[in-house]
Design goal:
With about 130 residues, this protein is an alpha+beta fold. It is built from two helices and six strands. A six-stranded mixed sheet has the order 1-2-3-6-4-5, with helices on one face. A hairpin with a 2-residue loop joins strand 2 and strand 3.
Length: about 130
């Protein structure tokens, strides 16, 4: 039976005792909802820009996947939470910079609010380390 292995990266701040950003169970990698919060735990990067926040988030996703022994081409599914559906084109523009070939399955949801008013985007990801994309 595979064990649950916490995965960390110096590029992504951890919140010990609250949640794990990334867990690997066998060849499956689970990422919590990531936002554009900086490593100082208070600053939000890309305030006012869903495009910039999405780029920050995908940079974090990439760092965590690499720490888990995988990469962006192994992302199987993601859920994207937006506070304003009008920002969807900006999210897709940023997404196209990080993915090519078989794009992951994806769900896009508008929500009333995220952790702080400055956060416009939050993304969860699942990947398979044994997959090729």
């Amino acid at each position: 039976m595979p064990r649950i292995e916490p995965i960390t990266s110096p590029e992504v701040v951890e919140y010990p005792g609250l949640w794990s950003n990334c867990l690997r169970v066998g060849d499956t990698i689970y990422l919590s909802g990531l936002t554009a919060r900086a490593n100082d735990k208070t600053t939000i990067l890309g305030v006012g820009s869903a495009y910039e926040q999405t780029r920050v988030i995908f940079t974090k996703v990439k760092a965590l996947l690499e720490a888990a022994g995988a990469g962006m081409s192994q992302v199987v599914t993601m859920t994207i939470y937006l506070t304003d559906m009008a920002d969807n084109r900006e999210v897709w523009r940023a997404r196209a910079e990080f993915f090519e070939g078989a794009f992951p399955c994806s769900t896009l949801v508008q929500v009333a609010a995220l952790a702080t008013p400055e956060i416009l985007v939050e993304i969860t990801v699942q990947a398979r380390a044994d997959a090729t994309g």
